[in-house]
Amino acid sequence: MNIEEITAYILSSFKNVNVTEANGDLFFMYDQEKMMPFATIVTSDNDFDSVSQLNREGFFRLNIGIDKASFSTIFDGIALKKGIGAYVDSGMDFTAENVVMPHPIYGAMYWLCIVNPGKDNLPVLKKHLDIAYGLAVKRMK
């Protein structure tokens, strides 16, 4: 899958989604929300997050914010951690492609990530995006 396919899926599957672009990264937000995306696509490293080595040609990372129960189920066997950057030193290879992992920086807030997702992961990612979008809708009510 590429960035355009993921973006098209999100925009065609969920109502009232706004996309904000900043420095090549995409932030998907529900309705009038301006600060809390339910999903992001990050296309390059920055001073705060370089563990996925996204400055490699053609690499990007899809990030999806889900709920604690879903996060705990998906990552059963991985201890829940607290704090920003909690998963950076967890021993996971955040450069690996097409592997769903806790987000290295925001995993403690129940975000997951996948570098260069493949079409074989689309059903799983759709489920996570459904959850994330539902949470965004609830936040706005």
Strand-helix topology:
Elements: H1 3-13, E1 17-22, E2 25-30, E3 39-42, E4 61-65, H2 68-74, E5 101-102, E6 111-115, H3 122-140
Antiparallel strand pairs: 1-2, 2-3, 3-4, 4-6, 5-6
Overall pLDDT metric: 95
- What fraction, in percent, of the residue positions are helical? 25-40%
Structural class given helices, strands, pairing?
A: alpha+beta
**Number of helices, counting only DSSP H or I runs of 4 residues or more:** 3
Largest sheet: 6 strands, antiparallel
Oligomer: single chain
The total of beta strands comes to 6
**Biggest β-sheet: strands ordered side by side in the sheet:** 1-2-3-4-6-5
- Percentage beta strand: 15-25%
Large-scale geometry: globular
The rounded distance between the terminal residues' Cα atoms is: 33 Å
Series of secondary-structure elements, N-terminal to C-terminal: HEEEEHEEH
Ranges where pLDDT stays below 50 over 5 or more residues in a row are none
* Cα-atom radius of gyration: 14 Å
Notable traits:
141 residues, 26% helix, single chain, alpha+beta, 6-stranded antiparallel beta sheet, 3 helices, globular
Written description of the protein model:
- This protein has 141 residues and is α+β, with helices and mostly antiparallel strands.
- Helices cover 26% and strands 20% of the residues.
- It is built from three helices and six strands; from the N terminus they run αββββαββα.
- The chain has a six-stranded antiparallel β-sheet, covered by helices on one side.
- Strand 5 and strand 6 form a beta hairpin.
- The longest helix has 19 residues, at 122-140.
- The mean pLDDT is 95.
